[in-house]
Specification:
about 450 residues; alpha+beta; Beta-lactamase; Transcription Regulator spoIIAA; five-stranded antiparallel β-sheet; binds 6-diazenyl-5-OXO-L-norleucine
Length: about 450
């Protein structure tokens, strides 16, 4: 854990002391074992994309995961069956209804919303037993990999939930009566009860949320738990459906994909930024932890974490367009430096994705400074180029070359050297000096 004086721990400490005294809300008691929770328990945990862990309060106190399991089992179903097959059985439409609503699509009986109980029971039932691993073991293994440690079941909560779970059984029978339940209702619901009774801490939940935020790779141990596309799909469903009938208001005000559970757990994920979790069992009428909601909402505001509040800073990718005569290289005779002056240089920096590649291509497309005959793309300060940006840069450079512009790339790691789909590769060089020399060579050189 980080030193107590770092900025993130200080922010968590501040939230903890501001909201620990809030005693509004009720502990869930429809499952008798949950009613035994300590109303004062309050913990917060945050895990960064580098796997740095921050926490305050009761972040290591165990409690059962309950509905916070739903997005992770949905992730497993997507991994095993793919989005199209899962969507045949359970939709991902915000239903605006409570977690235990009879929320089924008119006509088909398919659950509307994968995050309410009806949808979650079907999702659980979609996980096939294999010859070696029964359905629940697969679920437990998947939840454990998201958390980065082996989790177990709180058998007392499971027994209590099974004892009082008639509404969920009724839902399962109702779904089967209309068609879309691929297994026996009793088996489906028993597995769902066990999945809800898996024991976690706020720190575990932060790791699970961080794994989704980190494109499906657990940032604590580097384990790829699900594909990047699956992590993105799950975050999308959390953003639109994760907070039941409060999902719209949550996305509007807090602006983060999230999931609540009746035992008091609450997760939120900042895509490519962090996983966050809180534990406090006092719940509002929508079944969300009151203190958790206050803490995450306040953190989101304080650090500008709202998903839609993500201004890309202009100019942060392309640091400058200059001519090569400004290059700090020695020695350069008069002829040599005049020759260098005929190359425009576009210098890029940082990690290049779609947005950054668009900026670079736009800069390459600008009319060349007077007297220049060639353009050189300088990638020396670029830390990473994703596959989309690579393809965009290759085809953009090929288009410039086809338009008759002489182009070269200073690309010491050869990241653009492989030919694109059209078989064309840009001219790449290990140093800027070599790229400029090639781009400004006399035709007879
Ligand atoms: O289905 C149930 O009743 C619970 N085991 C889980 C529900 C839940 O956590 C709802 N979330 N706020």
């Amino acid at each position: 854990m980080s030193a107590a004086t770092d900025a993130v721990t200080e922010a968590l400490r501040d939230l903890h002391s501001r909201f620990a005294g809030v005693d509004e809300g009720e502990i869930a008691d429809y499952i008798p074992q949950l009613a035994l929770a300590d109303p004062d328990a309050f913990g917060l945990a945050l895990i960064s994309m580098d796997g740095h862990r921050y926490s305050i309060g009761d972040a290591e106190v165990p409690f059962t995961i309950q509905s916070v399991s739903k997005p992770f089992v949905y992730a497993l179903a997507l991994s095993v069956l793919g989005l199209d097959e899962v969507s045949r059985w359970v939709n991902a439409e915000p239903s605006g209804e409570a977690f235990n609503a009879i929320s089924l699509e008119r006509g088909t009986g398919r659950p509307d919303n994968a995050m309410v109980n009806a949808g979650a029971i079907v999702t659980t039932a979609l996980i096939p037993d294999t010859s070696r691993t029964p359905r629940f073991e697969r679920i437990l293994d998947c939840l454990s990999r998201f958390a980065g440690r082996m989790l177990d079941v709180d058998e007392q909560v499971y027994a209590s939930e099974a004892y009082t779970g008639d509404r969920n059984r009724a839902l399962a029978y109702l779904i089967r009566s209309t068609g879309p339940l691929p297994v026996d209702p009793v088996a489906a619901v028993e597995t769902y009860f066990r999945q809800c009774s898996v024991r976690v801490t706020a720190m575990d939940l932060a790791a699970m949320a961080a794994t989704l935020a980190h494109g499906g790779v657990n940032p604590l141990n580097g384990d790829r738990v699900v594909a990047e596309s699956v992590a993105a799909q799950v975050l999308a469903v959390m953003a639109t459906c994760g907070m039941y009938d409060a999902s719209g208001d949550w996305l509007l005000r807090v602006g983060l994909p999230a999931k609540s559970g009746v035992s008091g757990g609450l997760i939120a994920a900042g895509p490519a930024r962090f996983g966050l979790a809180t534990y406090s069992p006092l719940l509002d009428p929508a079944g969300t932890s009151v203190r958790g909601h206050l803490a995450i909402g306040s953190l989101s505001q304080r650090f500008g974490l709202h998903l839609m509040n993500n201004p890309a800073l202009p100019g942060s990718t392309v640091t400058g367009v200059t001519t090569a005569e400004d290059l700090p290289v020695e020695p350069a005779g008069e002829r040599e430096s005049a020759r260098r002056g005929r190359a425009a240089i576009v210098t890029a920096q940082g990690a290049l994705d779609f947005t950054a590649a668009e900026r670079v291509l736009h800069a390459l497309d600008e009319p060349e400074p007077e007297g220049t005959v060639a353009v050189v793309l300088d990638l020396l300060r670029v830390t990473d180029i994703d596959t989309v940006a690579r393809a965009m840069l290759r085809s953009g450079l090929a288009r410039l070359a086809a338009d008759g512009r002489r182009t070269a790339v200073a690309d010491p790691d050869g990241r653009l050297r492989e030919p694109g789909e059209d078989g064309v590769a840009p001219h790449c060089f290990a140093t800027l000096e070599q790229a400029v020399a090639w781009a400004t060579r006399e035709p007879a050189d």
